[in-house]
Every structure is written in C-alpha cells, then in structure tokens.
Design goal:
This protein has about 170 residues and is an all-beta fold. It contains no helices and 13 strands.
C-alpha cells in the first residue's frame, strides 16, 4: 500500500485517505455482515488490495447497556467486497466486546485488546462490570482464543484499549 494510506471507520461506513489524512474519500458503506454495525477504526493492511477489519455489530443477546459484539472481516479487492471471517469472542455472547485494538506480533499472530462489559441484574439493582481482555488469532482472523484479562475498569463503561507492539516484541496496552 501507499505510505500515506489511512482509513477511518464509523458505524456502517468507512473513509480512506492516500495523503496521511489531509484529504478523505467516502463515505463508503460496508455490506451487510450480520447486523447493524457499531464499528470504530481498527484494521490491518495485508497487501495493496487485502485488508483485515476488526469491527463490531449490534447483538441483542448482549446483557449490557450497549449491545455490541466484535468480529473480523476481510476484503481482498480493495474494499469493493467484504467477507465475515469470525466472531472475535466465542464465550457467552451475553458479554459485550467492542472497540478492538489489534496488532500483529513478531511471530505473525494477530493480538487484539478489546473493551468488555456485562451488566448483572440482581432484583432492581444492576451491577456494571467493565474490563479489557486480549484475544489472539494465529490463522489470520479465522479463529480467536482468549489470551488474558489485562485490566478491570472502574466506572460506568470504561475506556477503549489501545495496544502497540514494542520494538522488542512486547505488547503494551
């Protein structure tokens, strides 16, 4: 890809720039990938025409004030068509997973930190639990496995994680 390439995703659309964000093209719509999209920007360019997107969609089974579930999709033709690859979290879908921050580690494994939330209903009281989990995919986003919980978040909803791969291969969230 071009060194000036950048992309931003918002809900069901995305925008692209080829000059480091000075000028933007779009909005371009995502196709139906399994529900109303609630996406933020997280992607990994594989080559000029192929890109992985780490998105989220509305999921009515999520037991939280916001009902999102993270998934991985791919384009192989520069954004003309997309395919759903997998849900990024497989355990009970009643737990919110949203706003992934994904890197590829030195071994080529995709590692993604994401915001989690579950609202426990006990009578008339709701206890909100928020945290950040990390998942990994060694097969290019087709399957994901839980790696670790990295933080408990205080407050009503927490903040989205940001993850980077340091020069020595360590990950920082």
């Amino acid at each position: 890809g071009s060194p000036g390439f950048a992309m931003k995703c918002s809900g069901e659309v995305f925008f692209v720039s080829h000059d480091r964000g000075r000028n933007w093209q779009g909005p371009f719509g995502f196709p139906d990938l399994g529900g109303k999209l609630t996406s933020r920007t997280d992607y990994h360019v594989l080559c000029p025409q192929e890109c992985l997107f780490f998105l989220s969609a509305f999921e009515s089974k999520v037991e939280a004030g916001f009902q999102d579930r993270a998934f991985c999709a791919r384009t192989r033709d520069g954004g003309k068509t997309f395919e759903f690859l997998s849900w990024m979290t497989g355990e009970p879908i009643g737990i919110r997973s949203v706003m992934p921050s994904t890197v590829k580690n030195p071994k080529g494994v995709l590692v993604s930190a994401m915001r989690r939330r579950h609202d426990d209903q006990a009578g008339n009281t709701v206890k909100v639990k928020c945290w950040i989990d990390v998942y990994q995919s060694a097969d290019g986003g087709f399957t994901w496995e839980f790696l670790s919980k990295v933080a408990d978040i205080e407050g009503n909803n927490g903040n989205p994680p940001s993850m980077v791969c340091l020069q020595d291969g360590r990950l920082c969230v």
